[in-house]
Give the backbone structure.
Amino acid sequence: MKTRAAVAFEAKRPLEIVELDLEGPKAGEVLVEIMATGICHTDAYTLDGLDSEGLFPSVLGHEGAGVVREVGAGVTSVAVGDHVIPLYTPECRQCKSCLSRKTNLCTAIRTTQGKGLMPDGTTRFSYKGQPIFHYMGCSTFSNFTVLPEIAVAKIRQDAPFDTSCYIGCGVTTGVGAVVNTAKVEPGASVVVFGLGGIGLNVIQGAKLAGAQRIIGVDINPDREDWGRRFGMNGFLNSKGMSRDEVVQQVVAMTDGGADYTFDCTGNTEVMRIALEACHRGWGESIVIGVAEAGKEIATRPFQLVTGRVWRGTAFGGARGRTDTPKIVDWYMEGMIEIDPMITHRLTLEEINKGFDLMHSGESIRSVVIY
Ligand code: NAD
Ligand code: AHE
Ligand code: ZN
């Protein structure tokens, strides 16, 4: 079949809207009509050539929601007409990682996924006879995409596509980092670095968890109002401050250091600040941000010797097929908010504007509606 898609032909070049050829689902795969997709900073990072796994030409996008239109042989867990969210963190429930119960990082198809291929080692997308790579196993910047059955979460039919697509990455990552990874307890102090599409969801997760002090740090002063809207009760504009100044300010604002800090910037200097702003003896810093290829984190080992903990999280520690539908329920029941964070709705033709709005700090989340 044919599908309209925004293709990344090369790094650092705007996406091009073209008609691609799409092969139907093979055994264990499903064809999904994507109804809406968010634009996450990770898409921008890959498009900017900063991803060590980045491949071109490819169909980016990993924050979608849609409808199953066809199923391949042997597919049993979803049927035609089901509403689904594509999962860049699948859940096979059979691999060593899934069975360990210690991680959400299913390893069943990670190798081929990282090579832009379906589990059988081929692509379903092509353009003028040339293969086009998949991205993060999702490729939601295409109106139709093919996904492994283990990489779709079936969700309730009454959830709107244009908001629930955000649960495919940003919402689950931010809220999940608080409740699954850090396991923030009532009364805790939380500091969030970077109040964008992910950081605001960490803030609403911290509020949900009953954190008492919720402080945001950003270099964009407009983000203060945004943070307060979702439960933040203290803000630091760190623009122009040295590393030590930011650490000292945050430590002073949290009575000696935070119980939990979250990096939602992808900046390795900020990751260091987030660790060093933790309370001696028990503070935990959670790395959410994705850093550019070649970047490394550093701190004095004494920071860890004296009890601070550095952790990371992918997709908020959520087990894709099990937890994603629950987050959709939380949204539909009003436990968490999504609607105000969707600041821009775009057509596929306008998708490059979504990247511009992110880079200029004007948007929280842009969503493309097909
Ligand atoms: P975004 O562009 O919406 O937000 C980034 C925010 O960080 C902005 O508000 C920006 O002003 C702020 N910021 C930038 N530099 C800063 C600095 N030096 N100090 C303080 N604030 C600063 O991006 P997003 O979509 O929220 O994504 C945030 C990060 O999370 C990205 O690195 C993205 O790749 C990553 N991410 C990781 C996961 C995961 O599973 N681990 C999932 C989604 C996104
Ligand atoms: N490809 C990069 C790493 C990118 C990365 O860490 N991705 C996160 C999700 S970001 C979503 O917006 C993730 O899930 N990581 C776990 C995984 O298995 O990819 C690189 O450095 O090579
Ligand atoms: Zn993302």
